[in-house]
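Shipment paperwork, digital attachment
Item: protein structure file
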Amino acid sequence: MKNFVFVFLLPMLLLMSCKSEFEALRTSNQPEKIYKAANDYYQKKEYDRAIALYDIVIQFYRGKTEAEDLFFKYAYAHYYLGDYILASSYFKNFASTFANSKNKIEAEYLAAYSNYRLSPNYKLDQTNTEKAIIGFEQFINLYPDSDRADSANKLIDEMRKKLEQKSYEQGNLYYKIGQYQAAMVSFQNTLKDFPESKRAEDIRFLILNSSYILATNSIYEKKEERFNEALDHFNTFIKKHPKSRKLKDAREIEKETLSELKKLKV
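Attachment content:
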């Protein structure tokens, strides 16, 4: 029984001892000792403790030789803990503060990459996605020959596809609920922002169909103008996609549109 109690209590006693040693270190008012311990915790991947100690001495070492290494590890520690908002900020500040550092390029990349890690599902707000794209574009402009430029380009493509999907789904939602004017505007913005979209054919057909339905449901005074707009969208669709799988449907819309315009002129 005594052995059992000893085995049970030993880990707790060791934990309390480690905690008391850590707290004693924090309040020791010995910057050099604290900094060394912070680096030790960093090497052992105990990043939360490393950060806690770096926080205490970071001002003390500002402007000193150790500052560059300290600030770089400080940013990385936040990154490793998944605190990408702060990591991005600290990497960006590092690159700005230590412009001649050998780690500047890596910091610039990780500032953008941290925002990439924050980029959510396309259905959610894409502020961090846009920040990451801007960051990577700036990185590529500054370091076109970097071995990370190719990775940055691939991540930009990945995130632009996400933004495109969000834009497309927004237009599709308007279309499904019968808000055809809003759907047309949204789809046109998608084509403007993503001119090389693989969805371009579908989008232009949905614009055409939306314009036709909108004209059909319009008051008499607006019908002629809107049916003519539908014809314009048909002509654009045919010009851009002459071999479209939706060509038959598009021709049917043209036929109905011309018929409606003929009736209006009687």
